[in-house]
Amino acid sequence: MTSDHSQKALRPVQAAPGVLVHPAADRRLATEHWLLSTLPAPGRARARLEWEQHDVAILPLGTLFSAVRIPGRLVFALTATTEPAQLDAFLGEALDGGPVICDPHHERYYAVVPASMPRTWHEAVEEWRTWDVDCLGRGSYLGVPRPNIVGATSSRATYWSVAMDSAAALCRPLTVARLIAAGRHCLAAEPDA
Fold it and tell me: What is the pTM of this model?
């Protein structure tokens, strides 16, 4: 028989009326399922194994999401730092919490955007390429960290600079475009640009 005390400990957290509360673990699991749904069913097991063994899985772009590759030098120019934690915080604020993947070895960031961005922003994307910015969509693949791989460490090749808060929560294209424009402006103003 259980006591009143143990029953109280098992009760769910009460939120304001009409507000659903989803624990972080549930959101992370939903995000994981959403990311893996870019693959046909047989490929999902392989991607899960890649996450378990290497913390990164290769996923196709252009169906549920695409990615804008931003060279680190554009972000460094905006922040005047190369400290990973400060860069991550800056990107989180500048992109309104939109998800960003960091490849620290190649000094690149990948803003995760709607799948339609390569098509709808094609003119801007052509101009961005002179700055080594590219919008990767159909026919491209990206190393995507497991949703809980957040923050830089010396052993991580790739991590979420800004975590994907929930499934399908993406960066807004206009916000990404503004970040790129601001970075280009800062770089162009540098004496050795």
Answer: 0.85
Residue 22's CB: how many other CB atoms inside 10 A? 11
Q: C-alpha dihedral over 20, 22, 27, 30, to 10 degrees?
A: -60
Cα distance between residue 130 and residue 149, in whole Å? 31
What is the domain range of residue 150?
Answer: 22-189
Assigned domain for 12 exists: no
pLDDT digits 0-9 by tens, 103-148: 999 999 999 999 999 889 888 889 999 899 999 999 999 999 999 9
Residues 6+ away with beta carbon under 8 Å from 48:
36, 57
68 belongs to a structural domain: yes
How many domains is the chain built from?
A: 1
Tell me, yes or no, whether 13 lies in a domain.
Answer: no
Tokens of 152: 């830089």
